[in-house]
C-alpha cells in the first residue's frame, strides 16, 4: 500500500511545494498579459474569444503550475508513475488547453504598446525568428520533434540522467512542453492562426502519434525488468517495487495517454464530416439557385 501522507524527509506531503520562480513568473506573466489583452476586445475580437476560450486557457496554465510546482513534482522524483502523470499533464493536457485559448492576440495586446511596437513586433517579424518557427511548425518536423522527445527521454539512460541532474530535468520538461505545443498546433487552430494541415490530413497525423505512444507504453508496462535504476531505491519507502511502479506508469501512458490522442482523432474526424456536409449543402444550395 502506498503511503502518500509524508515525503522522504518525513514532512507533510502537502508542504512539499516547489516554488520555482522561473515557472511562476512565466505562467503568471502569460496569465496577466492574456487578461489585460482581453480587456481591449472589440465586438469582432469578442467573437474570436468567447467565454470558453479564456476558461480553457487559464485551466491550461493552472495545469502547468500544478504539474511543475505542486507536491506532484516532489512525488515525481520518487515514483515513476507520478512522473508519468506529470509528463501527461504537460504534453496532452496543458499544451492543447493553452492553444484552445487562442492566446496570441490577447497576449500581444496585453503587452504595453510602446514595448510591443518597439521590441515585440519587430522581433516577431524578423526573418531570423519567422523562418525557423515556420520550419519547425511544419507537420513532419513537429511530429518528429514531439515523438522524438517522448521516446528519447524515456530511454533508461536519458531518463535516469534527467532525474539525477536538475538542469537536464528542466530541459526535459521544457522540450516536452515546446514539442507538445508544436504538435498540437497542427491539430488545433490557434485563432487567428491556422494549422498547417487540412482537417482530413490531421487524421493520419494524430493516428501516427497514437501508435508510438501506445507501443512505448506497452513496452514499459510489459517489460520483465525495471528500466530506471533511479527508482529502485526510492520505491522502497512507498511500499512499491520498482517493477510495480513501472507497470502503473506504463499503463498510464498506454491507456489514458492513448485514449486522449484517440479522442482528438475522433474530434478531428467529426470536423471532417461536418465540413463535408456543409460543403455539400452549399453546393446543393447553389445548384438550386442556378436552376
Task: Give structural notes.
The chain has 291 residues and is mainly α. The chain has one domain. It is 76% helix and 0% strand. The chain has 14 helices and no strands. The chain is globular and about 70 Å long.
Summarize this entry quickly:
With 291 residues, the protein is mainly α. The chain is built from 14 helices and no strands. It has one domain.
What features would you highlight for this structure?
mainly alpha, 0% strand, globular, 76% helix, 291 residues, disordered N terminus
SS summary, helix count: 14
Q: Look at the helices and sheets and give the structural class.
A: mainly alpha
Estimate the helix proportion, in percent.
over 70%
Q: Tell me the strand percentage band.
A: under 5%
Mean pLDDT: 86
Radius of gyration: 22 Å
Strand count, sense and closure of the main sheet? none
Q: What is the global morphology?
A: globular
Order of helices and strands: HHHHHHHHHHHHHH
Q: What is the number of independent domains? A: 1
Unreliable parts: 1-8
Number of strand segments: 0
Task: State the separation between the terminal residues, measured CA to CA.
Answer: 74 Å
Amino acid at each position: 500500500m502506498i503511503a502518500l501522507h509524508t515525503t522522504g524527509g518525513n514532512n507533510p506531503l502537502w508542504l512539499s511545494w516547489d516554488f520555482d520562480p522561473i515557472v511562476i513568473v512565466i505562467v503568471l506573466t502569460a496569465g496577466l498579459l492574456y487578461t489585460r489583452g482581453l480587456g481591449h476586445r472589440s465586438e469582432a475580437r469578442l467573437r474570436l474569444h468567447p467565454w470558453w476560450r479564456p476558461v480553457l486557457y487559464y485551466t491550461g496554465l493552472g495545469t502547468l503550475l500544478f504539474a511543475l510546482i505542486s507536491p506532484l513534482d516532489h512525488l515525481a522524483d520518487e515514483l515513476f508513475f507520478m512522473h508519468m502523470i506529470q509528463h501527461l499533464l504537460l504534453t496532452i493536457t496543458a499544451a492543447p488547453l493553452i492553444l484552445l485559448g487562442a492566446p496570441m492576440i490577447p497576449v500581444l495586446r496585453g503587452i504595453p504598446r510602446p514595448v510591443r511596437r518597439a521590441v515585440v513586433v519587430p522581433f516577431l517579424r524578423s526573418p531570423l525568428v519567422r523562418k525557423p518557427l515556420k520550419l519547425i511548425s511544419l507537420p513532419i518536423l513537429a511530429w518528429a520533434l514531439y515523438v522524438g522527445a517522448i521516446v528519447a527521454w524515456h530511454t533508461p539512460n536519458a531518463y535516469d540522467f534527467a532525474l539525477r541532474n536538475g538542469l537536464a530535468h528542466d530541459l526535459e520538461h521544457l522540450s516536452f512542453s515546446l514539442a507538445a505545443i508544436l504538435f498540437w498546433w497542427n491539430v488545433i487552430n490557434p485563432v487567428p492562426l491556422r494549422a498547417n494541415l487540412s482537417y482530413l490530413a490531421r487524421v493520419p497525423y494524430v493516428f501516427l502519434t497514437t501508435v508510438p505512444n501506445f507501443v512505448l507504453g506497452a513496452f514499459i508496462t510489459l517489460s520483465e525488468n525495471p528500466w530506471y535504476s533511479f527508482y529502485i531505491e526510492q520505491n522502497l519507502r512507498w511500499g512499491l517495487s520498482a517493477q510495480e511502479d513501472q507497470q502503473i506508469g506504463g499503463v498510464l501512458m498506454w491507456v489514458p495517454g492513448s485514449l486522449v490522442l484517440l479522442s482528438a482523432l475522433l474530434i478531428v474526424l467529426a470536423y471532417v464530416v461536418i465540413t463535408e456536409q456543409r460543403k455539400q449543402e452549399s453546393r446543393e444550395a447553389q445548384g438550386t439557385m442556378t436552376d
